C-alpha cells in the first residue's frame, strides 16, 4: 500500500466519526495542555522565586564579631565597608545577654491593677540600619551622627515594640523607661524585610547603649548589589578589622546560580510528574476509543483482508489513525497551554518563562502517545482472520 493511500485511509477513518474523533482528541488535548501549563508555570514560578531570592537573600552579608579582650571592630570602622565597590549600605549592631530581656514601659506610673512593663530586647546600632534591613520609618526619624556624638537619650522602637508599649504617635515626644531611665522616642521602624526580629526591639545610639553593655559591636550587616555578595564577604573582614580578619566570621548567601538551578529543578520535577499523569490519562482514553473502533470495524477489516490487505497494512492504518489523533491533540494542547501561561502571567504580573523546545516537542509527544496508545488495538486488528471477521 502506498503511504499516500494509507494516509488517506487513516484520515477518512477519523473523519467518518467526527464527534468520536473529537472527543478522543480531547483527552490528548487536556494531557498536553496540562503538561505545557505545568512546566511553563513551573519555569515562571522558579524564575519568580529566584528573583525574590536574589532580592532578599543574595544581597545580604553578615559579619559576626566574637568577644575579644579588645574590641575587634569599632563603630566608625563600618564606614570603610561602605566604600567597598558593590556595597549599598552597612550598619553595625551591638547585642548582649544583659540587654536581651530588659523591662521597658511607656510611663513612670506604677499601676498594680495592670501590667505596664514589657520585656523587650534592647540593642545599639549605627545610623544606617533602616537601609540595611530594607525597612522604613513609619513615624519620626532614625537617630543620626549628631544624636550619637552628643549622646542624646533617644530611642527608636520597632513597630511591634511600639504597639506593645501603646505608642502610636510621636507628636508629643513620648518617652519610654528602661529601668528608671527615660528616653525620648524619636521614631518607629517597621516593614522590615531583613532582621525582622528588630520589629520587637528597642534601638539605642551606641554611646547611650554602653550602660547596658552595648558599647562593643557584635554584628555588622551589609547590603550589597546583586552578584557582589561573594566578593564583599571576602573583603569585609579586612576592611573592618585589618590584621584580625581571621577572627571574624562571615555569613554569606549561597551562590545564586546554584540556588536558581536547585529551585527550578525541584519545582520542575514536581510539576512534570503531574503533567505526565495527565498525559497518561489522555493515552488511556485514546487506547480505549481505538479499541472500540476496531471492534466496530470488524467487517471492514475482514473485507480489506479478503481483498488482499496484509496484516501490516491493517496495523499501520490503525496506528496512523491513533498517531494522527495524538498529533492533533498535541498541537491544540500546546497552543492552549501557551495561551493559559500567558493569561496566568498577565493576571499575576509575572514575566512568562518557557522553554521553546517544550512548545515544539509537545505535538511530537502527543503523536508518540497516540502511537503507543494505538499499539494494542492495531495488533488486535491485524490478528483477525478474514473469514471470521466477515462472518
UniProtKB/TrEMBL annotation:
**Membrane disposition:** Multi-pass membrane protein
For the ABC3 transporter permease C-terminal domain, which residue ranges apply?
Answer: 273-386
Q: Which residues form the MacB-like periplasmic core domain?
A: 21-209
Q: In its keyword annotation, does this UniProt entry include Metal-binding?
A: no
- State the Pfam families in the record: FtsX (PF02687), MacB_PCD (PF12704)
Query: Where does this polypeptide localize?
Result: Cell membrane
Provide the alphabetized UniProt keywords: Cell membrane, Membrane, Transmembrane, Transmembrane helix
- Could you list the residue ranges that cross the membrane? 22-43, 267-287, 327-346, 358-379
InterPro entries linked: ABC3_permease_C, MacB_PCD, Macrolide_Exporter_MacB
Q: Which family does it belong to?
A: Belongs to the ABC-4 integral membrane protein family.
- The entry's protein name is ABC transporter permease
Q: Which organism is it from?
A: Nonomuraea rosea
